[in-house]
């Protein structure tokens, strides 16, 4: 048992001072040993967590109904007549939606970008007004 105590006294992680100026103690060696074990444990546990990949698949159904997404956009097509421009609203599955509130304001412009005429259309609906 004395040999174990002697080894703990000689265990020092940072012996930078001349041995004449300090004395090695059992408690100092014990603290060094315990802290080294804790550091090794933490290192290997973090390494294990880093190397272990977790694949989590989660499918959640959105049960909220009536939630709408407001989208405003401004697109200029300088060389296309307003009569051939349309907008189709569909979701990611390809299903078209006709029960949404929507309007398209088409502004006819000349070669210099000045507004010549304004027309408001509903998506998939008849023409609402023309100026």
Automatic annotation (TrEMBL):
Pfam families found in the cross-reference section: ERGIC_N
Keywords, comma-separated and alphabetical: Membrane, Transmembrane, Transmembrane helix
Descriptive protein name: Endoplasmic reticulum-Golgi intermediate compartment protein 3
Signal peptide residues on this chain, from the entry's feature table: none
Transmembrane segments: 21-44
Domain Endoplasmic reticulum vesicle transporter N-terminal: 8-97
Organism for this UniProt entry: Vitis vinifera
């Amino acid at each position: 048992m004395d040999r174990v105590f002697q080894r703990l006294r000689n265990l020092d992680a940072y012996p930078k001072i001349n041995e004449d100026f300090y004395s090695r103690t059992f408690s100092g060696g014990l603290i060094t040993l315990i802290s080294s074990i804790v550091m090794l444990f933490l290192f290997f546990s973090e390494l294990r967590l880093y190397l272990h990949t977790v694949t989590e698949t989660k499918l959640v159904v959105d049960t909220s109904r009536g939630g709408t997404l407001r989208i405003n956009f401004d697109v200029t097509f300088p060389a296309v007549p307003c009569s051939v421009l349309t907008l189709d609203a569909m979701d990611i599955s390809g299903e078209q939606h006709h029960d949404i509130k929507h309007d398209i304001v088409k502004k006819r412009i000349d070669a210099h970008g000045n507004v010549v005429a304004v027309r408001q259309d509903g998506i998939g609906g008849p023409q609402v007004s023309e100026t």
